[in-house]
C-alpha cells in the first residue's frame, strides 16, 4: 500500500528547487542523512522503495522475537522483563511510524523544501540574508550536537551488554557475571539464552543503532525547517521596523508619504512575506502532524514505564545506570522537537508586538491596512501540534514529565499491593 502511494505521486522536485542550497554548509549534513535513509526527494523511486522496505522490515524483525519474549515473560510472571520488552516494542514502533509518515507525506515535505530554496534565492537584502544565515547556522549547530549525542549515547547503550564480558576479562571473578539484557527476546527456532551474544551482535545491535539514527535524522530535518521559518518571521519584523524608522526620521515628509505608492508596495510585500512565513509553518505542521501524535503518545507511555522499571531496580546499580541512560535519551528526543516548535511559536508572536510598537501611524492609510492585517493574523500564533490534539511546546514536554512520574508511582503502588496480597 505504502509503496503504491509513493509510486503514484508525481514529484517535480528538481525543477523547482535549487539543489545548491541543500549542498551548502548549513544543510549538507541533513541532506546526507536523509539520502542515506532513503528519504531525500531527489532519489530514484526504486531507491526510496527499497530503503522503505528495509527500514520497516528491520525493526519489525526485532519486534517479533521481542513479542515472543514478552509472551514468555507474561507466562512466567516476570514484571521487569514485561516492562522492558514493552518499552522496547513501543520504541521501535514509534520510530517505524515516524519513518512511515515522513515517507508517505513526501509531497508535503517537498512544499517546504521548495519554499526554503525559493526564499534563499529571492531574498537579496544583505541584512535580511543575515537572519537566514544566522538561523540556518543555529540549526546546523543543533544538528551536529544532536547527532553527536545520539551517536555516542546509542553506542554506549548498545555496547552495555558487552560490559560483563569485558569485566570478566579484566577483573575476573570465580563465576561469570550476569548478562545485561537490552531486551528479552525469544527467537523460538534457536536457543536465545545460549546464543545471546551471537544474536545480539549480528542482529540486535545493528538495528538499534540504525533505527535510532534514522529517528535523529528526521528530527534534524524538523529543526532545519523550523529554524528557516523563524528566520522568515524575523525578516518580517525587520522590514516593519525598517519602514517605520525611515518614516519617523522624516516627519516633515509625512504629508507626502500619505499617498506614496512606493510605501504601499513595500507594505504589501511585508504582508506577503508574513503570509509566506505562515504558509511555511503550515506546511511543516502538515508534514509532521501525524508522526508527532504517535511520538508524543508513545513517549508518555514509554517514560512512565521506564520510571516504573527504574523504581523496581533501585537495588541494582548497573540497571540504574542503564535505565537512566535510556530515560535521558527519550527526554532529549522529546525536548528537542518541543523546543523547536516553541521557537516557532515565540517568533510568530513577536510579529504582533513589533508591528504594534512600530511607526505605522506615519504611513498612508492605504498602506496601513496591510499593517492591520498583519496584526490581526499575528494575534493567532503559529502552533505546531501533534494530530491537532497536543500543542508542541515546552509546556507539553514538562507535562509529559509530570504525568509520567504520577503514572509510575501509581504502578509502583499497585505492584506493592499485589506483592503484599501474594
UniProtKB/TrEMBL annotation:
Its GO biological process annotations read: signal transduction
Record-level Gene Ontology MF annotations: odorant binding; olfactory receptor activity
Q: Where are the transmembrane segments?
A: 49-68, 88-105, 141-163, 200-224, 292-314, 320-341
Query: What does the UniProt keyword field contain?
Result: Cell membrane, Membrane, Olfaction, Receptor, Sensory transduction, Transducer, Transmembrane, Transmembrane helix
Q: Where in the cell is it found?
A: Cell membrane
Topology term for the membrane: Multi-pass membrane protein
Entries under InterPro entries matching the protein: 7tm6_olfct_rcpt
* Domain of life assignment: Eukaryota
Where does it sit, as one GO cellular component term? plasma membrane
Family assignment?
Belongs to the insect chemoreceptor superfamily. Heteromeric odorant receptor channel (TC 1.A.69) family.
Protein name listed in UniProt: Odorant receptor
The species this protein was found in: Nasonia vitripennis
Amino acid at each position: 500500500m505504502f509503496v503504491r502511494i509513493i509510486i503514484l505521486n508525481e514529484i517535480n522536485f528538481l525543477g523547482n528547487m535549487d539543489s545548491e542550497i541543500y549542498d551548502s554548509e548549513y544543510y549538507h549534513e541533513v541532506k546526507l542523512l536523509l539520502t542515506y535513509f532513503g528519504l531525500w526527494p531527489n532519489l530514484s523511486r526504486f531507491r526510496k522503495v527499497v530503503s522503505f522496505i528495509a527500514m520497516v522490515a528491520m525493526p519489525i524483525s526485532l519486534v517479533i522475537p521481542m513479542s515472543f519474549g514478552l509472551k514468555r515473560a507474561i507466562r512466567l510472571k516476570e514484571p521487569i522483563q514485561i516492562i522492558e520488552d514493552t518499552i522496547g516494542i513501543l520504541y521501535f514502533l514509534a520510530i517505524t511510524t515516524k519513518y512511515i509518515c515522513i515517507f508517505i507525506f513526501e509531497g508535503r515535505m517537498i512544499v517546504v523544501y521548495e519554499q526554503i530554496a525559493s526564499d534563499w534565492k529571492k531574498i537579496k537584502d544583505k541584512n535580511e540574508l543575515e537572519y537566514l544565515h544566522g538561523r540556518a547556522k543555529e540549526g546546523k549547530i543543533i544538528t551536529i550536537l544532536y547527532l553527536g549525542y545520539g551517536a555516542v549515547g546509542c553506542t554506549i547503550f548498545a555496547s552495555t551488554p558487552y560490559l560483563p564480558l569485558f569485566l570478566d576479562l579484566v577483573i575476573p571473578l570465580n563465576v561469570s557475571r550476569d548478562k545485561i539484557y537490552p531486551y528479552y527476546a525469544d527467537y523460538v527456532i534457536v536457543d536465545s539464552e545460549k546464543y545471546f551474544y551471537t544474536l545480539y551482535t549480528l542482529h540486535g545491535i545493528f538495528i538499534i543503532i540504525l533505527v535510532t539514527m534514522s529517528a535523529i535524522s528526521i528530527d534534524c530535518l524538523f529543526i532545519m525547517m523550523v529554524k528557516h521559518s523563524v528566520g522568515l518571521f524575523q525578516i518580517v519584523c525587520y522590514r516593519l521596523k525598517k519602514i517605520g524608522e525611515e518614516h519617523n526620521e522624516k516627519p516633515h515628509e509625512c504629508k507626502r508619504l500619505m499617498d506614496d505608492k512606493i510605501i504601499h508596495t513595500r507594505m504589501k510585500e511585508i504582508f506577503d512575506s508574513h503570509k509566506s512565513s505562515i504558509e511555511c509553518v503550515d506546511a511543516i505542521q502538515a508534514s509532521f502532524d501525524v508522526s508527532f501524535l504517535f511520538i508524543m503518545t508513545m513517549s508518555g507511555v514509554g517514560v512512565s514505564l521506564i520510571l516504573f522499571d527504574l523504581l523496581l531496580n533501585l537495588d541494582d546499580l548497573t540497571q540504574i545506570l542503564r535505565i537512566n541512560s535510556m530515560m535521558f535519551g527519550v527526554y532529549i528526543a522529546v525536548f528537542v522537537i518541543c523546543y523547536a516548535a516553541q521557537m516557532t511559536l515565540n517568533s510568530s508572536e513577536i510579529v504582533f508586538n513589533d508591528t504594534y510598537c512600530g511607526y505605522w501611524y506615519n504611513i498612508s492609510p492605504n498602506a496601513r491596512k496591510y499593517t492591520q492585517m498583519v496584526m490581526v493574523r499575528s494575534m493567532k500564533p503559529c502552533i505546531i501540534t501533534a494530530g491537532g490534539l497536543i500543542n508542541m511546546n515546552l509546556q507539553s514536554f514538562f507535562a509529559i514529565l509530570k504525568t509520567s512520574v504520577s503514572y509510575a508511582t501509581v504502578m509502583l503502588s499497585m505492584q506493592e499491593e499485589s506483592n503484599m496480597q501474594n
